Structure formats: structure tokens, C-alpha cells
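User: Run a structure prediction on this.
Assistant: Running it now.
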Amino acid sequence: MLISIEGLCKNFGERRILNNVNMTIEERGRYGLIGVNGAGKSTLLDIITGKLDYEEGSIYKSDRLSVGFLKQNSGLERESTIIDEMRKVFSDVLAAQKRMEELGEEMSRISDRESSEYKTAAGKYAKCQAIIDSRDGYNIDVKIMTVLNGMGFSDKDLNTVISTLSGGEKTRLAIARLLLKEPNLLILDEPTNHLDFKTLSWLEDYLVNYNGGILVVSHDRYFLDKIVNTVFELERGRIVSYKGNYSQFLTQKEERRIRLQKEYDAQQAEIARMQTYIDKNLARASTSNSAKSRIKALENMELIEKPDGELKTMRLRFDIIKEPYKDVLKVSDLDVCVGGEKKVLCRNINLHIRKGEKIAIIGDNGIGKSSFLKTIQGIIPYYKGTVEWGKNVTLSYYEQENLNINQEKIAIDELWDRFPSVSETDIRKALGSVLLTKDDVYKPVRVISGGERAKLAFCIIMLEKANVIIMDEPTNHLDLASKEVLEKALKDYKGTLIFVSHDRYLLNKVPDKIVEIESDGAKIYDGVYEDYRARKAFLAQSDKTEAKPEKNKEKKPGTNYRTKEQRRIEVIRKNRIKELESIIEETENTVRQLEEEIASEEVFSDYVLMTEKCKEMEEYKQKIEEYYEEWTKLSEETEDLKGE
């Protein structure tokens, strides 16, 4: 166990943010911390990491606990270079390597190896060796390059000064540095911001295999499904724990709500029945004792607390007034350009969208997805290609940062000015449905939160009742509950939907087709995000197969014949491959066991024993490398024979 929290309470002024919070974090646990915006998630993380005090309760932390904390939107503001910043993580190892070189030179000058001077130097040398071995110090550069490549820096000059990087690049670099530190508890607050699909996929695979605990706050439902096996929901100041990932949490939460309500209702019915009996029989001599026993039973009854009602969430419904014709949009050979210099982001885009289709647009950052949405609406001009909208098409547009909403107007006036014929009652009802009520509706748009601006934009779209909705990253500013509501509304929408999103959970639920925009065109994939991934993987494998040189293509008939000796060698080869796989697994288990022993206080405090353990571990690691080399060679020989 790394952390145990019992009865934790935290107040801000008179408001209690955390109330009797209980939670346990195990050494290799994978935990997701979720809750509506403002529930207190960041406050809880700050308390766990010691940045905030608390009023009541207790927190136990293991003596072995080492924490790596990535705060939301945190980045690096340093004047060092990328590679120097990464190497700072290993400063103790690098110092040990340098000291070892000095000690080696010193020992080489001492002729008497039995002298106290030599033994002292040798002891210091062994300590340095133990530090290096315990952190796999001879593979520092390999580790750094593996993580940097995975986090999207493969094409970046590693001598780039960090202060010149973008905000997104700094955040990715902060994650990379944290991963290289390898703490036994990673605490990540919104780690998926600024990551593209490729980097997200790499990070997910890395975290799944991470040799430590993980506590993550995220609004990325796909990420939570992939990473976590326990969900902590923070609601009304309290934590409820659910086993499983995010999708399993949704099911379990509803089951829990129904169960608690049934238990409460059953007890209330029993109380009412007993009270009725008491009222009727207490005054009667013949039944008075029976009634008194029921009074005593009521007094001793452990009352079930009335379940809290569901937190208020948005109510969204996108309707249409008139039907368009079958062909909604035809885009032919379109180039998407931006700026006065007419910089081309992507070219030769061809797309045919029909009535009722739901189309998701994806692609690399900067490829022109948002610009494509603006171009087909005429917001950005185009100079090559055609854009043809069908008859009876009416458009609603959700702009990523809601800049198409007047930032200076108050929220209610923004609606009234757009829909002057709609009654005040309906205007207020529409605002109330997206939880914009009371004083919030009289605030200027520029001062309300990103989530509230998003909800105002949804309110406008609901009132427009267009038969085509275009959306650019509609889930960016929403909490998990609001994302669920929006997802359902988009699935139920009877019109045509064209949207850009990085939300893979949404991409897995809503679209009929995925359109991937590339620099030289657009590729269309039927189905949802998982269908797209499967198809991409299949095509990539097909390309690899086709790229392999065809050996002995013009062999004469009968050249596939194997002699008895050749077949015997093949059997030996296959058996050896199976044997190597078993040996590798056993050896890796031995290495893991040694790593645990080295981390124990008993070994760590005894440098001689630690040196022996580290040396033994390195020998096993070397064996693993040799086994893998042999396995790879034999596997390639087997594949070559299959291709002949």
C-alpha cells in the first residue's frame, strides 16, 4: 500500500469541499479520479501531494512512496535544452558514473590491493556501481530517446531551448520527464491535453505496463477505459469507489443508485407499517406490550440514509424544422488555404455527404480540420475546387472557442438578439436546460467559464433547429456528465452531423464514417473509431507484406520440397523458439524479483549485498538480450522459409 486516507475533511471558508473522504492507493493500482468541475479533485490531489493542509482525518504514506505529480496545464519554463532537461533526471547516476571513473583511476595508481586506501576506494566504487545498476544507468540515453520519441519529439532538435517550445510541447515534455523519473506513484491531472492520437496511444501503452501506481484525473473517457481498473467518484465532497474502468463505472453507478433507493424505500415502508401498528395497538391492553416492542425496535433500527438525488445535468435535444434533399454536401478537389499568403494546409479533398449521415473529421494537428469546416461554410475563401450544398440545407455551427458568440453581450441578450420572436419564457427555459440560471444569465459571455460558453452555444443550436450541425471539438470544455448528455443528443439527432473531435470515446459512439484528412486528400472509413483503427492496422500490415522482397519468385515447380533432414531441422528450430519464450519469461520474472529485493531496505542499506544483487541482475538482463537475439534470428529464418 502506498497511501491510505481516512475521514479526510477540507474546508474553504464555511464551505466544506471534502467530507469524510476514504481511499486507498495500492502499489500497482490504476485509479481514475472523476467528478464534475469544481467537485474538489485538484484540491484532493494537492492534499495528497502535501501542497495543502486539511482540517480532519489522517493520511498514511508508505516510507517507500515517491510521487511524480503532473498538474493540469503544467509545462516547463526553462532555459536549458530538451536533452539537458531529460538528463537532469539521472543526475545522481551521471554523477556516480563520473565518480567511478575518478575512483578507477585512483585505484589503478595504488599498487597494494590489500591496503586500507585501496579497500576504501573499492568500497566507494562499489557504492557508485550499485547506484548505476539499480537505475539501469548504462541505458540512460536509450530510455530518454524511447520516451521522447513516444511523446512526439522524434523530429525535434534535442538541443532546442525549452522556452522556445509551444505550450503543448512543454506539457508533453513535462510528461516525458516525469516518466523518466519512474516514481512508484504517478499523479496525472488531465495528461491527455495537447496529445495527438499517435502520442496518446503510445502513452496509454506505456502506462498500462508502468511498474508503479497511477492516479489520474481525466475527462478523456477512452483514456480512462484503457488505463484504470478502479474509479474514485468525488461527488458532494465524498468518494465512492467502483471496481473497473469508466464504462464499467457507468453501469455500476446506476446499479448502485437503484439498489440504494430500493433499500431506502423498503425500510421506509417497514417503518410506516410498524408505526401504523403502534398507533393502533399501543392503547389496547391486550396488544400494548407488542406495540412497545415495536417502538423499541424502531428506536434501535439503523436508519438507511436517504440517497442523494442525481446531480443536475444538461438537457439537450437537437431538432430540425425542415428536411433537406438526399444530397447534403459535395466537396470536389478542394484545397484548404489560410492567411493572406494563401498557405495550403491540405489539398484535393473529396467528400460526399448524404442526409442523416454523421461524419467525424480527424487528422494530425495543424492539418487543417478546423479550417476545412470554415471553408465549406464560406467563412474562409477557397481558390481551388468546389463546395456544393444541397437544397433546403440549414446550418448550425459550433466553433471550437465559441468566438462566433458576442463576448461583450450578457448571455440572455445573446439569445434574445438572435431569436427576437421567441418568448422570454422559452428563452429562460432553454437557458435553464443547459444549467445557465439566476445570475449566470446576466454575466457577459467573456467572463463565464469555457464550459458555460459551450452550453450557451448548445442552447443556440437547439433554438436554431438546423438540419445540418457542424461542430469543432464540442467536448473540449465539458465535464464527464455533460459529455454523456451531448453524446446522447448527437446520437438521437435526426439531421446531418459533421464534426471534428479528438474525443475517442465520442468517436466510438456517434459517427457513421470517419474521414481522415491528410495533406494530399481525405480517406473515408466506414464505422466508428475502433473500426477505423482496425482498418488502419490491416492496411499497415498489408503494406508491410507487399513491401517484403519476393524471394526466388521464379522457382521451378517442386522447389518447396523439404528433405527429411530439412524437416528435422525445422522441428528443432520451432521447439527451440518455444523453449526460448519460456526461458525469457522465467528470466524476466527473476529480474523483477531481484528488482524488488534491491528496493528493499535490507538490501539497499547493505552496499556489498546490493552490489552482488545488482551484478546478478545485470547478468540476467544480458542473458535476456542474448535469448532475444537468438529468438529473433530463429523466427526470421522460420518466416523466410514460409515465404519460399
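Confidence is low (pLDDT under 50) at residues 551-561.
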